[in-house]
């Protein structure tokens, strides 16, 4: 909020509070004026108010960055947020994984991934060196969503590599 003055910030907050206090029928009128279209019939009072407030803030403070828009568009096309973010690891990012009591740090570089002062082309090659077996590198370092095979749903949390065999309960 450094782009707007204190007075502008106070005015913005007052406008948002005023919008939040409106009854649903007035919010629908304000929606039509703001977006030049009828409000979605499924939107309750809370959602109407939130969307209008977001629009007011966007006009005052600016919209989403291109990178954020790209991530949201990817999600809209069916790609997971983690899958999208994984492709955008920036140089300097440090990935940390503890395996069998030893902590392993990998630094993303423009040329690949640096582990123990050596540069590797993929995370999978590093995971293979650490474990001695073939691993999906992004999954090993917790960059992939885990998928519950029993109900075919993706969990929201990042996956944690399994340690040992699972016991049947």
The unreliable regions are: 147-169
Number of domains: 2
How many extended strands? 6
Report mean pLDDT, rounded to a whole number.
80
From the structure provided, what is the oligomeric state, counting identical versus distinct chains? single chain
As a whole number of angstroms, the C-alpha radius of gyration is 23 Å
Query: Sheet bearing the most strands, described?
Result: 4 strands, antiparallel
Distance between the termini: 53 Å
Strand order of the largest sheet: 1-2-3-4
The sequence of SSEs as H and E is HHHHHEEEEHHEE
Structural class: alpha+beta
Instruction: Sum up the overall morphology in one term.
Output: elongated
Classify the beta-strand content into a percent band: 15-25%
Which percent bin holds the helix content?
Answer: 40-55%
Number of H- or I-type helical stretches: 7
Structure description:
- By secondary structure, the chain is of the alpha+beta class.
- The chain is built from seven helices and six strands.
- The protein has helices at 6-20, 24-35, 45-61, 66-76, 81-86, 123-131, 137-140; strands at residues 94-99, 102-109, 112-115, 118-120, 145-148, 153-158.
- The strands form two sheets. A four-stranded antiparallel β-sheet has the order 1-2-3-4, covered by helices on one side.
- α1 runs antiparallel to α3 (45-61) and α2 packs parallel to α3 (45-61).
Give the key terms.
disordered C terminus, alpha+beta, two-stranded antiparallel sheet, elongated, 2 domains, 169 residues, four-stranded antiparallel β-sheet, 7 helices
Question: How do you describe this structure in short?
Answer:
The protein is of the alpha+beta class and 169 residues long.
